């Protein structure tokens, strides 16, 4: 049975990616950030997690690519205004299959804070 740990916070730059990376390596988990924003000024959180020094833990996690990526460093809802060809719907998300995981733990990192809007509705 897959265990999913969802990491969220009160907003942007509160340490979600740092905590996610620690959890990934401590629990020998894989990692997925379904929605990434701010790529015009940052390389993205999946890249940040990939740069964790694996020689410290001996674990190389499987990193699933974001389902949606936006250039603007805004909430996904607001970032969609600048990339009108993207319209997120909750049905667009599918958690990676257990068969695709290296272990039975997946760390999922949210975008922004707990109440950040993801869809237009």
UniProtKB/TrEMBL annotation:
Coiled coil: none annotated. It holds the Pfam family AAA_26. NCBIfam families: bioD. This is Dethiobiotin synthetase. It comes from Kluyveromyces marxianus.
């Amino acid at each position: 049975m897959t265990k999913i740990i969802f990491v969220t916070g009160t907003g942007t730059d509160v340490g979600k990616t740092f905590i996610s990376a620690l959890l990934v390596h401590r629990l020998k988990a894989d990692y997925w950030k379904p929605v990434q924003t701010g790529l015009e000024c940052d390389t993205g959180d999946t890249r940040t997690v990939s740069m964790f020094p694996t020689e410290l833990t001996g674990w190389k996690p499987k990193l699933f690519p974001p389902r949606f990526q936006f250039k603007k460093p805004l909430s996904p809802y607001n970032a969609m205004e600048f990339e009108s060809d993207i319209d997120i719907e909750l049905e667009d998300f599918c958690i990676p299959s257990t068969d695709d995981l290296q272990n039975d733990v997946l760390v999922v990192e949210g975008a922004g804070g707990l109440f950040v809007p993801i869809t237009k509705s």
